[in-house]
Each structure stands twice: as structure tokens, then as C-alpha cells.
Amino acid sequence: METVLGLLIPFAGTALGSAGVFFMKKELDDKVQRALTGFASGVMVAASIWSLIVPALEQSESMGKLSFLPAVIGFWLGILFLLFLDSVIPHLHMNAEKAEGPKANLKKTTMMVLAVTLHNIPEGMAVGAVFAGLRAGSAAVTAGGALALALGIAIQNFPEGAIISMPLHAQGQSRFKAFMGGALSGAVEPLGALLTVLAAGLIVPVMPYLLSFAAGAMMYVVVEELIPEMSEGEHSNIGVLMFALGFTLMMALDVALG
Fold first, then answer.
1. Which one of 71, 73, 101, 104 has the fewest CB atoms closer than 10 angstroms to its CB?
2. What is the pLDDT, as a whole number, of residue 93?
3. Among candidates 125, 123, 215, which has minimal Cα distance to 161?
4. Which domain holds residue 35?
5. Is 181:173 a contact under the CB 8 Å cutoff?
6. Tally of CB atoms within 10 A around 175
7. How confident is the model over 53-112, as pLDDT tens digits?
8. Residue 244 has what pLDDT?
9. What pLDDT sits at residue 42?
10. Which tens digits make up the pLDDT trace of 210-250?
11. What integer pLDDT is reported at residue 94 of this predicted model?
12. Can you spell out the DSSP letters for the chain?
């Protein structure tokens, strides 16, 4: 039950954020979007380090001076996996005019949802990897640390839900359809987390690779998508400040609860 609740917490954050479309009348201001994107970036970077890479290194300590290898290999596999998905899934980033990936006759709104869904895959894998480590009895993963990651991802998912549902409504979709689009973009997280938990139960010896794989995938999303989005348009430091806030909040959660 603890694992199930942990896997659903991030999805709840996305759904609650998407529900903002029922209460807010206007599209999100550009500065607000940059602030929320910066915050999400900070949370994801801190989670990648404290919740994933550090435990991966701790689990490989028996390798001595080569204990960095699983983390490095897993990290690069995560980067390459997201690079692959980025090239085979048609998607459209926020405020972009040209879609990425293969050409497809899809609506603009559909490709926007696909972009957020692609973004959410590594987050689900990250939560799944940590809870898999907890279930396997890994000394490097604590119940508090797993909860901290789930809460951190949920917190940064809250604004993301609004960032996707509000533009969908502004482009003509009903409030309910816009809410469903935003919420469903986060549905991949518990699914990805569950599949990771089930797979990790069979391959416990490669847990350090799995943890760092999720970290690499998350860092790809931050550098390729979120940081460019928080920096576009008229110059503003709001994205950087919110990045710092998200980073320190996630770091504090992991240390305090871990």
C-alpha cells in the first residue's frame, strides 16, 4: 500500500494543477510560466542528485575506485533513451511553432500533450526506481527519501498541470477537456513507475544503473526542454530564482525526510 500511494502522489499533483483551469479565467502570464518552469527544473535537478545519483553511488561502494561506473553508465543510458524518444514521438514544446520528432498529422494541442507526456516518463521512472529500491531493502534508499522524491515530483507537477491545461482551454477546448488533457499527460507517471518497480524486482543487482538511468532521463528533460523555456522571451531572472527555490526545497525535503 505504501508503494501504491507513493506512485500515485506525483499524478495527484498533475491532476490538481490541471484543475486550475476550472478556476482561472485567463491564460498564464509568460513570467508566471517561466517561474513555474524554473521551479520544476530546480526540483528535478535536486531530485536527480540527492534521490537518484547519490544512492546509486552508495550502492556501488563495494567496487572501490570504480564505484562511479554504474552511475556514469546508467546516466548516459538515460540520456540516450530520452534522446531516442525525443526523435520518434511527435511533440510540440510550449510557445514553439515547429513540432519536433517525425512528421504527423496531429492537432497542435495533441502534440503539446505529447510533449508533457514525454517529459513525465523519466519522472515516473525515477519514483518507480526509488520505491523499487525501498522494496528490495536497499540500505541506500529510505522510506523517507522515497516519500521526499514523490512529494517533490508532485509539487513540481502541480504548476505543470496548469501550464498544459490553461493553454489547451485558451486554444478552444472546453474546461473539462483541457483538464483531462492536462491530467492524462501525467498518467504516464504512475504507469512508468509501476513498470519500473516490477522490472526492478527481477533485476535488483542493477539497481544503481536503474537509479542513475532515471537521473539521466530527468536531466535530459531539464536541459533540452525546461531551461530553454524558462529563458525564452524578454530577459527576466524569475526563472533562475525559482530554479534555486525548487532546488533547495527538493534538497531540504530529501535530507529532512531521508
1. 104
2. 66
3. 123
4. 2-257
5. yes
6. 15
7. 998 898 888 889 899 999 999 999 999 998 998 888 876 666 666 767 777 777 766 776
8. 96
9. 92
10. 889 989 988 998 998 888 888 877 778 888 999 999 999 98
11. 64
12. -HHHHHHHHHHHHHHHHHGGGGT--SPPPHHHHHHHHHHHHHHHHHIIIIIIIHHHHHHTGGGGGGTTHHHHHHHHHHHHHHHHHHHHS-B--TT-SS-BSS-----HHHHHHHHHHHHHHHHHHHHHHHHHHHHTT-TT--HHHHHHHHHHHHHHHHHHHHHHHHHHHHTT--HHHHHHHHHHHTTHHHHHHHHHHHHHTT-GGGHHHHHHHHHHHHHHHIIIIIHHHHH-SS--SHHHHHHHHHHHHHHHHHHHH-
Give the whole-angstrom CA distance, residue 207 versus residue 213: 10
pLDDT, residue 49, reads 92
Residue from 230, 199, 214 nearest 79 by CA: 214
Contacts for 165-170 with beta carbons within 8 Å, 24 or more apart?
165/17, 165/18, 165/19, 165/20, 165/21, 166/20, 166/21, 166/24, 166/27, 166/28, 167/27, 167/28, 167/94, 167/112, 168/21, 168/109, 168/112, 168/113, 169/21, 169/27, 170/27
pTM (predicted TM-score): 0.81
* Residue 242 identity: M
